[in-house]
Design brief:
Elements (H helix, E strand, L loop, with lengths): L1 E9 L2 E9 L3 E4 L2 E4 L3 E7 L2 H13 L3 E4 L9 E3 L3 H5 L7 E3 L2 E7 L8 H16 L6 E7 L2 E10 L5 E3 L8 E9 H16 L3 E3 L9 E9 L1 H10 L5 E9 L3 E9 L39
Parallel strand pairs: 6-11, 6-16, 14-17
Antiparallel strand pairs: 1-2, 2-5, 3-4, 5-9, 7-8, 10-11, 11-12, 13-15, 16-17
Helix pairs in contact: 1-3, 4-5
Length: 295
Amino acid sequence: MVFVTYFWLACGIRQRMSMSIILPLIILGGVVFASGQERITVQDHRPLRVAVKAVESMIGYPINYEDPPADFSGDNEDVSTPQQHANKSAVRLLVPRRGEIDYVLPVGFRSVDLPTLNLTISGLVSAYNGQDLPGHFRVLSKGGSFTVSADTVRNRGGIVTTVQSPMTTIISGEATNIPIRDVISLCAKLVADSIGKPVYVGTVPQMPWPEVSVSVKRGTARDIFDQVNSQLTGAKLSYELLYQTGYGYMIHVRFVSPKTSDAGSAQTPGHNEPRTQDAPSVSPFFNRTGARKKP
């Protein structure tokens, strides 16, 4: 058995994902391909988010992720530095309690077959929900788009309660021929105004932004993203809505380019895929030093 481990540095914290693969295998561009069984193991403060985004990158199909508002002290972990603990007035870095996902990926999961993709995502969600980790998630599918979203979480008192994602809040707005970056900002503002809490825009692709038109009348932020993607060819938008206890929400956006069916080029990004910085897995609002990030 061969173990391949990937590391990302997010806010100075290392998150780990490994894939164990039964031979035979081929290594192309740092990514492992195999005709045998593939297993994904993630250890992170948001293991479901990391696992989902790993699958998204491997198959080239957008999968949205929405955090639960995990404010219960038992669902959070203090990762503040010793210097912050020594400074009584310093900001504390409270993040979701660290967990792990270990899941055998279905045969043929790399093919963009919607039933197989649904099976893959549902398997990751079940692996997460089977543990005592912050929030309970479900898979939502609409018109070929997939969203992993929390439906219950423990409130501040530790009682499990039903939650609704801010991305489902009823909003109304329209814009014609504006860059996608401005659409994302408009979307965040409409949601923030509706829920009465801040929704910041985090990491976004670094590229010349194409112009699109959107219009929602008593719709949702998810509808806005669906409208944008319907106007794009090739790479599609994918978002993550992350929650920081005590501060609110931050939305991170990336482009996901479809992979070709040829195994030799299946992991090569499309020529029009812009460079995108991954959203931080630990805290979307603070650097590891505790300095507040500028939205």
